Amino acid sequence: MGKLYDKTVKKLIREKPSVRHADGNGLYLMTPKRGDAYWMLRYTTPATKLRREYTIGKVEDWSLADARDEAAKLRLAIKREGADPVQERHKVNQNPFKTLNDLYADYYALRKREIASHQKEKSLYEREVAWRIGKVELEKIRPVDISEILRDVANGYDANKPRPTLSNDLMRLLRNLFDHGIKLDVTRFNPASPFRPRDAGGEEKAANYPMNEDEVTEFFTKLRVIPTQFSRENYLACALLIATCTRKMELLAAPWSEFDLENRIWYLPEERTKKRRAIDIPLAEPAVEWLNELKMRSCGSEWVFPARRISKKARTPHVCENTLNHALKKLFEKELFSFDKRRVHDLRGTARTKLGKLGFDDNLAQRCLNQLPGNRTDRVYNRHAYFEERREAHEALCDWLAPIVSGEVSSGE
């Protein structure tokens, strides 16, 4: 028990006989002649043996009992952990990341340099997190807040359908975001760290379903005869995704400035690849012919696949990421094909599978897909790696694909 009592505190505040009134164990009631009375803790730092004074708070906000409890916690942290409350408070006051939105802004700047899909990740954060806990102080966010968001997205809420895969994406985003905060020393723990897929959208199966040779033949044969439902540009995009082994937006968002059609090379820069790894892609002759047709169809645009509708509200000057997805989805919903639904990304898997069947080893096939790991130095010096071998692989791929795309080989033959 300290020296002060509640009645004594009220009397000292009213009469102000002096500025400092000791309660014991370093806790003082401060009654300045001007301003509000407050609680102050005096302590000695374990490392430097400096005497410091730490303001706990105003008396109107902290009762005598609360001030004693807080002082006891601070003394324990000073003794056991070597903490310095004044320094800790200084860190908090200097910290520019007060809320989760503040932290995400810094995290996003980093992600822009790391991955090509940063805009998609930002959109997910803004749609599902920012309006819920974005303005909450970092230290006040608890695992229950994360759990509510993940379950809502996984199970559906309001007019939104259940989106289990998106819930898993969100779980990984939040874990990485709070880990970023820990690295910056702006938050002490990660409230998203306990969560796993079973707590969000559930375990995911591999989402790569490549087409076999018969399915590829049927795919292009049926697409070729419905130009009003599936445009020629979409048709050639599907062919080029297999021929170049690239990801969807690496192709659909490509400017003509990246292509040297005369020398049959596509210079894909690192900032437009998923793993920030530049690559020079050799183009087989059929791929060059398809690109020349697209150049004519683009009507002088700087983009290989310019936006279909010219509008001030258009998000991008090239086709958006959902254009090809939606076009294919509609056809599969109409059961146009005899095989199960495929996604645009499965075209890349189809190319990888066919390269293996053509006899190219895994190392070369991975290089064609720009999948090999490596540090930044390796990425700079190896963008040309195995270029001639990769050219041979791309040409073999197009030797098989071109007759199907042109209609020389049709399903049923």
TrEMBL record:
Range of residues in the leader sequence: none
Any one Gene Ontology BP term: DNA integration
Domain Tyr recombinase, chain residue ranges per copy: 206-395
One matching Pfam family: Arm-DNA-bind_3
Protein name according to UniProt: Integrase
InterPro entries xref list: DNA_brk_join_enz (IPR011010), Integrase-like_cat_sf (IPR013762), Integrase_catalytic (IPR002104), Integrase_DNA-bd_sf (IPR038488), Integrase_DNA_bind_dom (IPR025166), Integrase_recombinase_N (IPR010998), Phage_Integrase (IPR050808)
SUPFAM superfamilies reported for this sequence: DNA breaking-rejoining enzymes
One Gene Ontology molecular-function label: DNA binding
Entry keyword set: DNA integration, DNA recombination, DNA-binding
Recorded family membership: Belongs to the 'phage' integrase family.
Lineage, broadest ranks: Bacteria, Pseudomonadati, Pseudomonadota, Gammaproteobacteria, Vibrionales
